[in-house]
Automatic annotation (TrEMBL):
It catalyses: ATP + H2O = ADP + phosphate + H(+). It is an enzyme of class 3 (hydrolase). This is RuvB-like helicase. Its EC number is 3.6.4.12. GO terms for molecular function: 3'-5' DNA helicase activity; 5'-3' DNA helicase activity; ATP binding; ATP hydrolysis activity. The lineage of its organism: Eukaryota, Fungi, Dikarya, Ascomycota, Saccharomycotina. It comes from Ogataea parapolymorpha (strain ATCC 26012 / BCRC 20466 / JCM 22074 / NRRL Y-7560 / DL-1) (Yeast). Keywords: Activator, ATP-binding, Chromatin regulator, DNA damage, DNA repair, Helicase, Hydrolase, Nucleotide-binding, Nucleus, Transcription, Transcription regulation. Residues 65-356 form the AAA+ ATPase domain.
C-alpha cells in the first residue's frame, strides 16, 4: 500500500494563538539556561522557568520521549504561560499541540480517539524526498483571459544561464503564479509533482528594476545548467496529518474543517508500519514533539490509563500537563491522590512547581500586558490594578485592563486613570466576590436539583425537568 504524505491543499500551520499569552516569546533564559528577571515577556517565577529550560534542552536533544512533565501550582501563577514559553522556544520544526483537558469530551469523538489524535498531532515525521523541479528565472508571463472569464490560457518563458524554454500554462498554473505574485525577473521553482511554485528571490540581473523591489527583496543568482533538475526536499508532517490524508478521499479538506471523525485503526497500523520502514531506509526521521494538556485534572481515569500506555509507544511525544489541584479525587474513581493524577502516572512525571507572585512581579506582568494590548495606564491605575491582582488573581486584574480601557474611551481619553479601574472593578466581579454573592443569595439561584425559590417566604419550588 502506498501512503501519501502530501495533500494538494495548503499546509496547515499552527493556528492556535492563545491571546492571553501573546506577550510571551520564550522562557527568557540566558545562554546558560539562567532565567533573566524580565525577558521575552516573562517575569519572575525563576525556579520554574529554569526547570522548564532544562526540560526544553532535553526535548531539543531528543532525550526525553516517553516521559511526562507536570506543572503544578495555584491558579494564575503562569503554568500555561510557561508551556507557551517552551512552545515558542522549540521553533517551527518541532510539533507542539495544546489542548485543554475538557476538550477530549465531545460528542463527535470518543475521549480516547480525541487523545489519540492529539498524541499523533504531536509527532513530526520529517520526510526526505527527491522530486523533479523546474528552476529558473522568469523571462515573461503571458496570460490570455477569455472574454467569458472562465477559461484561462497562457505561456511562461523561463531560463537558466544556459537555456530558455516556453511552457504552456493551464488554469491551475496561472492561479498559482497569480497567487505567488510572480513577475518577470523572479527566480522560481516549480514542483513537477504537485505544481506548487516557490519564489526563491529576484534575479541579480534585475537588481536595477526599482519598481519591483520591496524593502526585503532577496536577490539570487540566475540558476545554471538544465531547467529541469532533481532536488532533495525535506518536508515535515505530523502523524495525524498522514492519518487524515490517507483515511479519506478528501482528506486534506478535513484538515481544514477540523472535522476528521474517528480514524480506523487499520489505517493507523499501516501508517505506523510504513513510517518505521521509511525510518529504516533513511527516508524519514521521527521528531517527537510536545503535547501540552492544560487543566489535566479534567481528565478521567480512562484517559489517564490511555496516556500511560501511549507514553510507552514507539512513537511517543513529550507530554506536558498542568494542574491547579492539590490532593484530590481522580475523576471516575473514589481515590484521592496528589494533583488528582493516578499514582502510576505521577510516578513517571517530573514535577515543576509554580508559586504565587510578589507585588512588583504582578506590576511588571500587568504593565507588559497593557503594552501588549496597546493600552496606556497612568501610575495610579497600574497601582490599583496591581493591588487587585494581589488580592484577587493576576488573570482577573489582567482582564480589567481592556475593560478599563473601554471605560476610559467613553470619557474620550486614551489613558486609563484610577477611576476607570475602580468602575471596571465594580462592574465585573472577580470569582471570590461572585462566590460570596452566590452564597448570600443562594435562594435566588436554581440549584443542582432544579429547585429555585421565587420569593423569600415561599418554599422552594421545582422548575426543572
Ligand atoms: N511569569 C510570568 N511572566 C509573564 N506573564 C505571566 C507570567 N505568569 C503568568 N503570566 C500571565 O498571566 C496570566 C495568567 O497566567 P496563566 O499562565 O494563565 O496561569 P495558570 O495557567 O497558572 O492559571 C496570563 O496572561 C499569563 O500569560
Ligand atoms: Mg492555565
Amino acid at each position: 500500500m502506498s501512503i501519501a504524505t502530501k495533500s494538494d491543499g495548503e499546509t496547515v500551520g499552527n493556528l492556535s494563538l492563545i491571546a492571553a499569552h501573546s506577550h510571551i516569546t520564550g522562557l527568557g533564559l540566558d545562554d546558560h539556561l539562567q532565567p533573566r528577571e524580565n525577558s521575552q515577556g516573562m517575569v519572575g517565577q525563576l525556579k520554574a522557568r529554569k526547570a522548564a529550560g532544562v526540560i526544553l534542552k532535553m526535548i531539543q536533544q531528543g532525550k526525553i520521549a516517553g516521559r511526562a512533565i507536570l506543572i503544578a501550582g495555584p491558579p494564575s501563577t503562569g503554568k500555561t504561560a510557561i508551556a507557551m514559553g517552551i512552545s515558542q522556544s522549540l521553533g517551527s520544526d518541532v510539533p507542539f499541540t495544546a489542548i485543554a483537558g475538557s476538550e477530549v469530551f465531545s460528542k463527535e469523538l470518543s475521549k480516547t480517539e480525541a487523545l489519540n489524535q492529539a498524541f499523533r498531532k504531536s509527532i513530526g515525521i520529517q520526510i526526505k524526498e527527491e522530486t523533479e523541479v523546474i528552476e529558473g528565472e522568469v523571462v515573461e508571463i503571458q496570460i490570455d483571459r477569455s472574454l467569458t472569464g472562465g477559461h484561462k490560457q497562457g505561456k511562461l518563458t523561463i531560463r537558466t544561464t544556459d537555456m530558455e524554454t516556453i511552457y504552456e500554462l493551464g488554469n491551475k498554473m496561472i492561479d498559482e503564479l497569480t497567487k505567488e505574485k510572480v513577475i518577470a525577473g523572479d527566480v522560481i521553482s516549480i514542483d513537477k509533482a504537485n505544481g506548487k511554485i516557490a519564489k526563491l528571490g529576484r534575479s541579480y540581473t534585475r537588481a536595477r528594476d526599482y519598481d519591483a523591489m520591496g524593502p526585503d527583496t532577496k536577490f539570487v543568482a540566475c540558476p545554471e545548467g538544465e531547467l529541469q533538475t532533481r532536488k532533495e526536499v525535506v518536508h515535515t508532517v505530523s502523524l495525524h496529518e498522514i492519518d487524515v490524508i490517507n483515511s479519506r478521499q478528501q482528506g486534506f479538506l478535513a484538515l481544514f474543517s477540523g472535522d476528521t471523525g474517528e480514524i480506523r485503526s487499520e489505517v493507523r497500523d499501516q501508517i505506523n508500519m510504513k513510517v518505521a520502514e521509511w525510518k529504516e531506509e533513511g527516508k524519514a526521521d521521527i521528531i517527537p514533539g510536545v503535547l501540552f494538556i492544560d487543566e489535566v485534572h479534567m481528565l478521567d481515569i480512562e484517559c489517564f490509563s490511555y496516556i500511560n500506555r501511549a507514553l510507552e509507544d514507539d512513537f511517543s511525544p513529550i507530554v506536558i500537563m498542568a494542574t491547579n489541584r492539590g490532593i484530590s479525587k481522580t475523576r471516575g474513581t473514589n481515590y484521592k491522590s496528589p494533583h488528582g493524577l493516578p499514582l502510576d502516572l505521577l510516578d513517571r512525571s517530573i514535577i515543576i512547581r509554580t508559586e504565587g507572585y510578589k507585588e512588583d512581579e504582578i506590576k511588571s506582568i500587568l504593565s507588559i500586558r497593557a503594552q501588549e494590548e496597546e493600552v496606556e495606564l497612568n501610575a495610579d491605575a497600574l497601582s490599583l490594578l496591581t493591588k487587585i491582582g494581589m488580592e484577587t488573581s493576576l488573570r482577573y486584574a489582567a482582564n480589567l485592563i481592556a475593560v478599563s480601557h473601554q471605560i476610559a474611551k467613553k470619557r474620550r481619553t486614551d489613558t486609563v486613570a484610577l477611576d476607570d479601574v475602580k468602575r471596571s472593578y465594580t462592574l465585573f466581579i472577580d470569582s471570590a466576590r461572585s462566590v460570596q454573592f452566590v452564597e448570600e443569595n443562594s435562594s435566588q439561584y436554581i440549584d443542582d436539583e432544579g429547585r429555585v425559590q421565587l420569593s423569600k417566604n415561599e418554599d422552594a419550588m421545582d422548575v426543572g425537568a
